[in-house]
Write a structure and sequence with these properties.
369 residues; alpha+beta; 16% strand; Wheat Germ Agglutinin (Isolectin 2), domain 1; homodimer; Hypothetical Oxidoreductase Yiak, Chain: A, domain 1; globular; 13 helices
Chain lengths: 369, 369
């Protein structure tokens, strides 16, 4: 079964309060020398992601980040900085800080440029895995910006005509202010993320033929073929491939970051080394272009049209992107976040790595399995 | 059979020189009062598209544009203008000029802003169908810019949970400078364009279940269901829907253009009325951020990696986006453009509309069917 080293502990599901989980993340990161401010920024990204129900990209990853912070490939006291800039753009060197700190810094650079010029671009090099791409534009949308985030990664996704992987699963996210919660989309450029293939493998299920190729380059319905040298397929064939390539151009070529196979996997590669990930952030300050209230009212007109449209058979509701995540967050902030076993396992391992008693340090209820 | 009024003439395939086809387009447009400059701009967009082999979006559409120019819904002497601007953005009112003239104007506004600030945004209202989205970023990439183009349209595409159409097929295109031809992707946010469904219908073929929904909102493999009140499906389900919605936000909400159902179909609606289409263009002046030669060399590294990658069974070559179109253009500029019958039919109809003898005015060879 395809498991990485982060999953070497057994665990059961826990229900925890968001504030308690944030405190645990901050304690873990400050215990290895990170500033309280940077630790809180990181906790904000990771715990918000868990409140959205996106447990694949939240605190689950913390053990991997800490391994590299302790190994030296990430700098626990790194300071992202602008190394070149112009009226509407900035190039950020992340100094191999944890990806969340660099990415919040860069998103805010793009927002500052947009406040001056209407639109702003920040490219990023010397970064690492940045978690859920959607966090950064959501942050900006909360302050009245339309915003985009994207990042490159080591190749795992194929393309039409190719036998194996050519591009990363290169995430793309955007958010837009509305009268209510922002519209927010966060997507990989593959048909599905590797985690979905792993789940099908675990449950011995066949998968659709457009999810993966086997190592010979043939589409396969057997999830095991992915872990035996296969690759993911791009969403919509040439379309997802083309979007992944645009992201490589902006987050990689224009940023000065690593390109495709120059990037190292953030989980399994030598933790004494930097991974070379790049990213790019774009912000548009709506209020510079039209009154923000007018813009929101136009967006709300589109959203209402969608909500009021006839439903497909069996459908009760048509969601706009991000609406499901916003709903889950509201529940999680009241009832607590349910961390599934595959999230608790690496947290438990992390606690062991750091000599902490996880269950003593993180107030929780055990959720019956 | 699903045919629109533009297809009321019988025709056979013709081979024509690009220059002769351009001259025909310019003559047709100047004969109804358009300036030579605007007619040449329009011919540049349409004939370039035909040299790429994208015959669905080239001179085939000219009859539809001329009908609206004569009807008054498009202004034959319209003058696109900047109605609001800031350091890195411009809002363009197209004055209901033909979409190609407005879009080239707006792309150049975005480029001018990018020359000053590094990145530039131009939004567009009072436009119409703009042809192949890829033309505009390709123009910019030829001058050293990374560029994007997008437009909204009357809804024809469904979404997860919806019975019918919610968004337009909202095209998105980008281009990036390389050491050779630009990388260029031009895509609809639906799984396939309506034209592909029409072709399957014509040939009595079943289609994959992710192409369309029938009028009850169920996925259908019968192309006839599309023309009986059905809708297209978004590429990759919620991903294509989310991308279409981002385009609506930028090209519609932020531009001041029509939104979703406020837009009129450009082929069949009353030609005395404006259609209300919007668009958005983004340009990044690479040379402001890093030396253009360094950027191109980084892009060429990625492209070479792709070209040199192992091929899938049965594949001889892995193309980067736009490479097939650039290859077809080189052949077309030497050997001529082959206009298939479904392009010659509306050109023949247009010639009748204007009292021109098409075959006398357009030097050609008949291509055996």
């Amino acid at each position: 079964m395809a498991k990485n080293w982060m999953m070497d502990h057994d665990a059961q599901a826990l229900r925890v309060k968001a504030d308690d989980l944030s405190r645990f993340v901050v304690d873990a990161l400050t215990s290895i020398g990170m500033s309280k401010e940077d630790a809180e920024t990181t906790a904000g990204v990771l715990v918000t992601t868990d409140t959205w129900g996106v447990s694949s990209h939240g605190v689950k990853s913390l053990r991997g980040y800490v391994r590299r912070l302790r190994g030296g490939g990430l700098h626990v006291q790194g300071k992202p900085r602008v190394v070149a800039e112009g009226p509407a753009w900035a190039q950020v060197d992340g100094d191999n800080s944890i990806g969340m700190v660099t990415s919040v810094f860069a998103m805010r650079q793009a927002m500052a440029k947009a406040r001056a010029g209407g639109i702003g671009l920040a490219t990023v090099r010397e970064s690492c895995h940045f978690g859920a791409a959607g966090y950064y534009p959501s942050l900006a949308a909360g302050e009245g910006f339309i915003a985009l985030a994207m990042a490159n990664d080591i190749p795992s996704v194929s393309a039409p005509g190719a036998r194996g992987a050519l591009t990363g699963s290169n995430p793309f996210a955007y958010a837009v202010p509305t009268g209510g919660d922002p519209i927010m989309l966060d997507m990989a450029s593959s048909t599905v993320a590797g985690g979905k293939v792993m789940a099908a493998h675990f449950h011995n299920k066949q998968i659709p033929l457009d999810w993966i190729k086997d190592k010979a380059g043939n589409p396969s319905s057997d999830p095991a073929a992915f872990f035996a040298g296969g690759s993911l397929q791009p969403m919509g064939g040439h379309k997802g491939y083309g979007i992944a390539l645009l992201i490589e151009m902006l987050a990689g070529c224009l940023s000065g970051a690593g390109l495709t196979w120059q990037i190292k996997g953030w989980i399994d590669s030598d933790p004494t080394l930097a991974t070379g990930h790049g990213a790019a952030f774009v912000a548009i300050d709506v209020s510079k272009i039209m009154p923000l209230a007018d813009f929101k009212s136009r967006v709300d007109h589109v959203v209402k049209g969608i909500h009021d449209s006839p439903k497909a058979p069996g459908s009760q509701q048509i969601f706009v992107p991000g609406e499901i995540e916003a709903g889950k967050r509201k529940v999680a902030l009241v009832e607590g976040i349910v961390l599934p076993p595959e999230v608790v396992a690496p947290l438990s391992g992390l606690a062991d790595d750091l000599g902490i008693d996880l269950l003593a340090k993180l107030p929780h209820q055990v959720v019956a399995g």
